[in-house]
């Protein structure tokens, strides 16, 4: 009996403490408002970018979209305005929301940790990310694992990079020279080999690299729809290709007429590398290509065009075949 009031008081005290600690953790709305204030941004500011992995990650086993809805309400950033971008991550990845102000490059990255919304402020401007020291320092941030993704994509947005390039980055979850090569190849294909009625593209991804994710987005050639056939070659097979800088094949096929054309493509990475001084951090080399995205023929070329019949088409796309061997494009 004597202990009862004491126990009750302890319970009251614990409840008060619990309330106080939950009251002290800022809400997502408060954290975002504070971040916008520190960036000098108001709601609906067209120069404010929000980037997040919210459509992909799960929080406590649940879809994270409600957090995205709340963040949109506060920032006014939307897909339609082009200032809300996503990046794909595994479902177990932490939820992050980054706000960046065009012009200054100032940014706040908000990460959901177990107990709070953690804000980290830094400058992601193009000159800041061109310094190797930036990348050394980036590892110390809670959001360090996503820094390359956020920095490169945000700067491409800030420099008015094309939206289909940003969509390619969403699927690939970053922008790198390899993805950029795929974007250039996709536009070379659209410019040089527009499909005629009844025709469709099949991309033979061989050799395979980051480019395939831009080709999927820009050309709508996905493996699931059989618009992309992904084939990895051995080192010996690759060395035996009789095409300089091989970058896969384009097949333009008319299924009714059972005829088409094949194109072996080349991509010149030396030209892309030559746009930046040696040892430039990767994110900054991507920015150097932005002024050249509308001239893909500077980097992409046709190594060989050939006619396709049904046999050859099937031989190139079937599982066990080396497509270069089928097309007669090997050294011996
Ligand atoms: Zn990549």
Task: Sum this structure up briefly.
The protein has 332 residues and is an alpha+beta fold. The chain is 40% helix and 21% strand. Strand 8 (199-205), helix 9 (211-219) and strand 9 (228-230) form a beta-alpha-beta unit.
Folded structure, characterized:
Helices cover 40% and strands 21% of the residues. It has two domains: 27-160, 2-Layer Sandwich (60s Ribosomal Protein L30, Chain: A), CATH 3.30.1330; 177-326, 60s Ribosomal Protein L30, Chain: A (2-Layer Sandwich). The strands form three sheets. Strands 4-1-5-6-7 form a five-stranded mixed β-sheet, with helices on both faces. It has a five-stranded mixed β-sheet with strand order 9-8-10-11-12, with helices on both faces. The chain is built from 14 helices and twelve strands. It has helices at residues 4-24, 28-39, 65-75, 126-129, 132-138, 147-158, 163-172, 177-192, 211-219, 235-239, 269-273, 282-289, 310-317, 323-326, and strands spanning 48-52, 58-59, 62-63, 84-86, 96-101, 106-112, 117-123, 199-205, 228-230, 246-254, 259-267, 300-308. Residues 16-22 have low confidence and may be disordered. A hairpin with a 4-residue loop joins β10 (246-254) and β11. The chain has 332 residues and is α+β, with helices and mostly antiparallel strands. Zinc ion binds at residues 172, 174, 176, 178-179, 210.
């Amino acid at each position: 009996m004597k202990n009862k009031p004491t126990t009750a008081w302890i319970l009251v005290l614990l409840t008060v403490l619990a309330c106080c600690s939950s009251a002290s953790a800022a809400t997502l709305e408060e954290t975002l408002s504070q971040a916008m204030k520190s960036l000098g941004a108001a709601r609906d500011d067209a120069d404010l970018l929000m980037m997040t992995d919210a459509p992909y990650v799960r929080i406590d086993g649940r879809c994270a979209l409600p957090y995205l809805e709340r963040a949109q309400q506060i920032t006014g950033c939307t897909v339609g305005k082009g200032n809300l971008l996503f990046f794909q991550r595994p479902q177990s990845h932490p939820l992050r929301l980054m706000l960046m102000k065009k012009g200054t490059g100032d940014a706040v990255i908000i990460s959901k940790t177990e107990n709070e919304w953690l804000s980290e402020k830094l400058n992601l401007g193009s000159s800041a990310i061109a310094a190797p020291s930036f990348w050394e320092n980036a590892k110390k941030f809670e959001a360090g694992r996503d820094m390359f993704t956020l920095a490169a994509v945000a700067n491409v947005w800030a420099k008015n990079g094309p939206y289909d390039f940003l969509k390619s980055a969403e699927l690939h979850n970053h922008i790198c020279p390899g993805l950029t090569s795929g974007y250039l190849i996709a536009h070379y294909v659209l410019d040089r080999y527009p499909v005629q009625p009844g025709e469709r593209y099949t991309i033979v991804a061989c050799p395979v690299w980051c480019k395939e994710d831009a080709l999927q987005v820009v050309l709508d050639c996905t493996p699931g729809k059989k618009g992309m056939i992904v084939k990895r070659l051995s080192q010996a097979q690759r060395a035996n290709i009789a095409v300089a800088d091989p970058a896969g094949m384009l097949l333009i096929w008319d299924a009714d007429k059972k005829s088409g054309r094949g194109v072996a493509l080349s991509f010149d990475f030396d030209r892309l590398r030559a746009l930046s001084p040696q040892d430039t951090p990767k994110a900054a080399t991507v920015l150097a290509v932005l002024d050249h995205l509308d001239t893909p023929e500077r980097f992409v070329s046709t190594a060989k065009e050939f006619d396709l019949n049904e046999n050859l088409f099937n031989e190139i796309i079937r599982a066990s075949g080396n497509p270069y061997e089928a097309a007669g494009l090997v050294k011996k």
